[in-house]
Amino acid sequence: MVAEADIMCKQSIPSTTSAAAALDVQYHVCVAKDQNFQIDVNVKNGSSPSTPVFREVRVTESVSADISRFESVVSCSETIKSAVVESSPVKFVPSIRSGSYADIGKRDSMEDEHIQIDDLSAHLGSLFKCPTPSAFYAVFDGHGGPEAAAYIKKNAMKLFFEDAELPETSAIDDAFLQELENSHRKAFLMADLALADEHSVSCTCGTTALTALVLGSRLLVANAGDCRAVLCRKGVAVDMSQDHRPSYLPERMRVEKLGGYIDDGYLRYLDGSLSITRALGDWEMKFPIESASPLIAEPDVQQEVLTKDDEFLIIGCDGIWDVMSSQYAVSLVRRVLRRHNDPQQSAQELVKEALRLHSSDNVTVIVICLSSPDPPESCPPQRRRFRCASLSEDARSRLKSLLEGN
């Protein structure tokens, strides 16, 4: 819509008379198509032409309606523009910091291992162009000895990043994430094969593995075994992994289809027994390489787009989850974070609680904060309590004499 203004001024001042000057000003403004309104301004008698005084303004009704419609259009346009701006998605950028804690528990030896890298880009250098922020975490729960878990931890960066077929582009889109997921699956399988060839690791030794990779606002969790990752979303626990145990019906059906069998909650095959259905290593219980086996190392992978509602992520070995639910752990960590704002202390408190609940395994956990820290809760000042004490008869008499000045 275009507005035009045409201003015509006429001034007539007689030179032989003191009569009032006359000034006629006509405004022609076109609003919309072929519409105009007129404003007549007259100067009061006796006023100087240079300082006109407005006495009367007349606007035709048709033009007033057009102006109203014009204002409505402008207002509607501004409303639509505001709505578009408000509905535009705001990309969430995690503010990452983490803390971890591990305890041998009631076991004779420590077979858990973990990895905690808050800045993956700085750790890898030019090897992999990571978006900001980027982080990598992992927990490994060994069995049959600590060697398998220790070997995977030592070689994790080589297996998952250096030797992995990582996407060449750094654009975080669906194609990139699919390639990254495939790369992680291959890394688990390559780690399993590496254990088969590693002479320092017995064929009776194995480990579960869970990794969590944060790239920008994307979270990728890969799991083989019964470690668990749990996301806290506005105080509600969201499981990011599935425990691979014989009690999980899809796993039981897969195992039995491939010739394995479940007895008393254990996968039993080739003179061995495990309480899990997926693991790295344990080659005495696996068919020859490239053969389908009931016990596998292939991970389940889950992806999630993080938002401002996602407060933190917990990843831990089964020593935690044997004695508490995902929601119990999330509520405990959230309470400690609100009090102390320290992920390290939150991880420690979670491990202590698992031990208090009589966990019989090694206990390892990592707490990864994703949102900006909230101010710690302030404890309200406690009211001083006074206790009334009873006085003996002798004390009463002494107090009375003192008050009376005797």
Notable features of this structure?
single chain; 406 residues; alpha+beta; Phosphatase 2c, domain 1; 2 domains; 6-stranded antiparallel sheet; 18 strands; 31% helix; hydrolase
Write structural notes for this entry.
The protein is an alpha+beta fold and 406 residues long. The protein folds into two domains: 4-87, no CATH class; 97-241 and 297-369, PPM-type phosphatase domain (Phosphatase 2c, domain 1), CATH 3.60.40. Helix content is 31%, strand content 26%. The protein contains nine helices and 18 strands. It has helices spanning 61-87, 120-124, 147-162, 174-197, 249-257, 318-321, 326-340, 343-356, 393-404; strands at residues 4-12, 22-30, 36-37, 40-41, 97-103, 112-117, 134-143, 206-215, 218-224, 228-233, 236-239, 261-263, 266-269, 272-274, 280-281, 300-305, 310-316, 363-369. The strands form four sheets. Strands 6, 7, 8, 9, 15 and 16 form a six-stranded antiparallel beta sheet that branches. A five-stranded antiparallel beta sheet has the order 5-18-17-10-11. Strands 1, 2, 3 and 4 form a four-stranded antiparallel beta sheet that branches. A hairpin with a 5-residue loop joins β2 and β3. α7 (326-340) crosses α8. Mean pLDDT is 78; it is low at 1-64 and 76-88.
